[in-house]
């Protein structure tokens, strides 16, 4: 049996002629065609006469137009297929005239569409390329079919590219009818509403994704913050423990020093040594533990206290002079702590007579100022505290030790 159609080996489409196969190859780039005995389906719409070559095409036509009745004219249209490619009219004319030249390469042109439907789509706000593409691929049937095609294919990358077809292709059939101006406005509003809803759904989806990402990042930040706070809490606990141990050791040293001073005074006064049985039991010595955490403030405070005690011990017969020295040192510390940017408070001339009379001659005073951060410069002529080395906490600690020494009449005695 002779073949009645050409079948595309790539997509399975049935074509009635070589001309249709060539057009199909131009549009799809498919090049594998075989002769088939299967006739091309020819369903003709009873309402508008549009031919449909597949069940899918007829279902799509029904969905777009509402037409449901079709007449099957497949057997009437089936005829043996000619495998010779049709020659263009120009070549036929040249053959008749004796020219006999071969046909030129077929030209691709913009398909002809219904101009009335095209202008109505442009009035609805669609670009000419999109409107032409919609009319061409929807069958140039109606405005509604073209509008539906635009909505279904609005995400196609080539939707705004002008379609091209071979110049020999058939002209499209004229549209049956068009919409009234009121229907155009209504359809335009429906299209806008559908596009708006689709855009809102996409935005909601993106917002949900962003919210999930924010929650994930937030959880990670909270976990990192929790770990950091836990480590800081452990560090502070260890620091406080080390400070308490250091303070306990300092108190024990002070107690032992007081006991020694008390025994020395009793010896000088000619009193017998205190009976150990009556003496209060001493606290067990604290085992020295090495601390790997900074305890500089407590150590400096102890050193400052020892300097002040040395000043008191070396001049215990001249309380007025000791008190003057303590008050002068307190003024130096307070001025620097209050005005750290003023250089005049951070620089002291050691050779100044007033300074020597009040502070310089008392052993332990210069050492106390050095513990506050002062450094000797210019061969020891000046004591200078650089701005970047001003430590307000150390200065406050010095002030506290000085106030305690000034207000405690028994400081350095017991």
From TrEMBL:
Q: Which domain of life is it from?
A: Eukaryota
Bias class Basic and acidic residues marks the residues at 182-224, 238-264
CDD domains registered for this protein in UniProt: PUB_UBA_plant (cd10461), UBA_PUB_plant (cd14290)
Q: Where are the transmembrane segments?
A: none
> Region Disordered: start and end of each range?
74-106, 158-224, 238-293
Name the Pfam families for this protein.
PUB, UBA_7, zf-C2H2_OTU1_C
Q: What is this protein called?
A: Chromatin assembly factor 1 subunit A
Gene name, Swiss-Prot/TrEMBL: LOC105158671
């Amino acid at each position: 049996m002779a073949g009645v159609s050409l079948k595309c080996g790539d997509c399975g489409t049935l074509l009635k002629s070589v001309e249709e196969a060539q057009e199909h190859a131009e549009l799809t780039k498919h090049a594998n065609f075989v002769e088939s005995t299967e006739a091309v389906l020819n369903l003709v719409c009873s309402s508008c006469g549009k031919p449909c070559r597949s069940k899918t095409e007829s279902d799509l036509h029904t969905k777009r137009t509402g037409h449901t009745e079709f007449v099957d004219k497949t057997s009437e249209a089936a005829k043996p297929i000619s495998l010779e490619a049709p020659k263009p009219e120009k070549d036929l004319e040249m053959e008749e005239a004796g020219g006999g030249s071969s046909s030129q390469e077929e030209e691709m042109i913009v398909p002809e569409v219904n101009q009335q439907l095209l202008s109505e789509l442009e009035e609805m706000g669609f670009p000419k390329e999109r409107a032409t593409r919609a009319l061409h691929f929807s069958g140039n049937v109606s405005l509604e079919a073209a509008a539906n095609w635009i909505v279904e294919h609005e995400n196609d990358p080539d939707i705004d590219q002008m379609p091209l077809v071979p110049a020999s292709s058939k002209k499209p059939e004229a549209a049956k009818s068009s919409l009234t101006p009121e229907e155009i406005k209504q359809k335009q509003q429906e299209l806008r509403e559908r596009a708006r809803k689709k855009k809102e759904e996409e935005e909601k989806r993106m917002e949900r994704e962003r919210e999930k990402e924010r929650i994930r990042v937030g959880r990670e930040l909270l976990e990192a913050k929790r770990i950091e706070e836990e480590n800081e809490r452990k560090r502070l606990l260890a620091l406080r423990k080390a400070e308490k141990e250091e303070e306990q050791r300092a108190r024990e040293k002070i107690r032992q020093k007081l006991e020694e001073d008390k025994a020395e005074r009793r010896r000088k006064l000619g009193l017998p040594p205190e009976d150990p049985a009556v003496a209060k039991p001493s606290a067990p010595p604290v085992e020295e533990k090495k601390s790997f955490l900074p305890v500089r403030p407590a150590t400096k405070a102890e050193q400052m206290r020892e300097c002040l005690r040395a000043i008191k011990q070396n001049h215990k017969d001249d309380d007025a002079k000791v008190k003057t020295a303590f008050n002068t040192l307190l003024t130096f510390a307070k001025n620097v702590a209050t005005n750290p940017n003023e250089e005049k408070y951070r620089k002291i001339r050691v050779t100044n007579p007033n300074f020597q009379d009040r502070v310089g001659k008392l052993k332990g005073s210069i050492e106390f100022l050095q513990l506050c951060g002062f450094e000797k410069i210019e061969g020891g002529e000046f004591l200078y505290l650089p701005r970047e080395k001003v430590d307000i906490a150390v200065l406050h600690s010095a002030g506290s030790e000085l106030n305690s020494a000034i207000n405690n009449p028994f400081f350095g005695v017991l």
